[in-house]
Amino acid sequence: MNFKAIIIRLYFMLIYSDGKVNQGEISLGKKMIETEGISEAEFNAQIESLKKKDSSVVYKECVADLKHLKPELQIRCIAWMCVLANSDGFMDKAEWQFIYKIYHKELHLPLDNIMEVQKELSKLTRDNSAFLTSTLPVNRAS
Predict the structure, then answer these.
(1) 111-119 long-range CB contacts below 8 Å, 24 or more apart?
(2) Inter-residue contact 90 to 98 (CB < 8 Å)
(3) In the 8-state DSSP scheme, what is residue 104?
């Protein structure tokens, strides 16, 4: 499956998971697509297309596609979601539940590896965001 399409879908689902889209998420989304070599036109077209789909269908398709990626790309996707969720200074409960459900329940990924990649991505984006200090919470009931 196409890593770029998956990461755009994850971004879309994450920024709308708490019902509030903030400027930090938008700014970091731009940094994410730049870092991952995604064209702004491709990104915007896919976001507009996703707005027309049922969110439960988008989620199911995205998880199914994630399961076909190599583990290192799965980890990179989740790490990006953590960085994005922390863009406003903290990870909202709905954002945390969304990320936890995917990384722990669906993909069974090791948290240490996610946090390591999250730190690397945070360093890449630090110049454009002042709020990347929190990390992914562990083992809370969703």
Answers:
(1) 111/136, 111/138, 113/75, 114/75, 114/78, 114/79, 114/82, 115/79, 115/82, 117/75, 117/76, 117/79, 118/79, 118/82, 118/83
(2) no
(3) I
Q: What gap in Å lies between CA 62 and CA 102, rounded to an integer?
A: 10
Per-residue DSSP letter, 37: T
For the stretch 36-66, pLDDT in tens is 999 999 999 999 999 999 999 999 999 999 9
* DSSP at 128: G
Find, among 95, 13, 27, the residue nearest to 60 by Cα: 13
Q: What is the CA radius of gyration of the chain?
A: 14
Helix, coil or strand: residue 79: helix
pTM equals 0.85
Selection from 70, 104, 96, 113 nearest residue 14 by Cα: 96
